[in-house]
Amino acid sequence: MVKQNIVFVENTPGSLQKVTKILAENQIDIYGFGCFDAPEFANFRMVCDDPEKADRSWTENGYMTRITQAILVDLQDEIGGLTSFSASWATAT
Predict the structure, then answer these.
(1) Number of C-alpha atoms within 13 angstroms, CB side, residue 43?
(2) Going residue by residue through the chain (93 aa), what tens digit of pLDDT does each one get?
(3) What angle separates helix 51-60 from helix 15-25, to the nearest 10 degrees?
(4) Are 21 and 66 in contact (CB under 8 A)?
(5) Helix (H), strand (E) at residue 69
(6) How many whole angstroms separate alpha carbon 27 and alpha carbon 61?
(7) What is the pTM of this model?
(8) DSSP string spanning 36-78?
């Protein structure tokens, strides 16, 4: 398990650029990213090289943030890769 950052933003043009610019200015690298949006708000989930520093940087810039645990899986880039993984995961638990 790794730590992931969640940043809550208004769902407006440029919101992702503002969030990632803060990371760039603070020399924080993004390893993985996902966005989940609704009509008015979105949350960006990122795995960064320094989740605590990322959290502080966004908080200092007025963003509401959270750090949670995430499971990362490196899948083969092929048709059925996720299906094979989920089948093996289901039998392991």
Answers:
(1) 10
(2) 899 999 999 999 999 999 999 999 999 999 999 999 889 999 999 999 999 999 999 999 999 999 999 988 888 889 998 888 888 777 766
(3) 120
(4) no
(5) strand 64-70
(6) 16
(7) 0.82
(8) EE-SSEEEEEEEES-HHHHHHHHHHTT-EEEEEEE------SS
